[in-house]
Amino acid sequence: MRIGLYPGTFDPLTLGHVDIISRASALVDRLVIGVAINRDKGPLFSLEERVAMIEAETAALSARTGTEIVAHPFDNLLIDCAHDVGAQVIVRGLRAVADFEYEFQMVGMNRALDSSIETVFLMAEARHQAIASKLVKEIARLGGDVSKFVPDAVRQALVAKFSAAGI
């Protein structure tokens, strides 16, 4: 069984993430979405909320493709998470050249830690390349329409989150 790991914070899950998940699911038998706990980033959504969004958005894709897609929270090294879930492949999404610089360094470090785990880069579709979770949150916080950037359930969660905060 080929197992892939697609790690990220997913705060929130965007259409760019969904695109990468969809395309990565065609490459593996089981795709684990590694949801980084990463308290240092101060996520808007709790870990439980992020996992629930991923599970809701990937259920239909998993049923349609036959690829098992699961969310897996982690707060350890990425390579250790890959070991924990039995992944042979780490999937990373790229949007721009700036992403590549960082990812190139990460691949080198991960290869030094375990050369048996490959990293595969998938370019986001052109219409999703500008989408960044940080920008989506800022647009939503300021009352802008984020429907072009996130699934509808995520848009609703953003509206609810900022309404509850009185923003």
Distinctive features:
167 residues, Rossmann fold
Radius of gyration over all CA atoms, rounded: 16 Å
Would you tell me the structural class of the helices and strands? Answer: alpha/beta
Give the helix tally.
6
What spatial order of strands do you see in the largest sheet? 3-2-1-4-5
- What distance lies between the first and last C-alpha atoms, to the nearest angstrom? 46 Å
Identify low-pLDDT runs: none
Instruction: Sketch the major β-sheet.
Output: 5 strands, parallel
Shape: globular
For the record, the CATH architecture stands as 3-Layer(aba) Sandwich
Bin the helical content: 40-55%
CATH superfamily placement: HUPs
Count of strand segments: 5
Could you tell me the strand content as a percent range? 15-25%
CATH-derived topology: Rossmann fold
User: How many domains is the backbone divided into?
Assistant: 1
- Listing every helix as H and every strand as E from the N terminus to the C terminus, the arrangement reads EHEHEHEHEHH
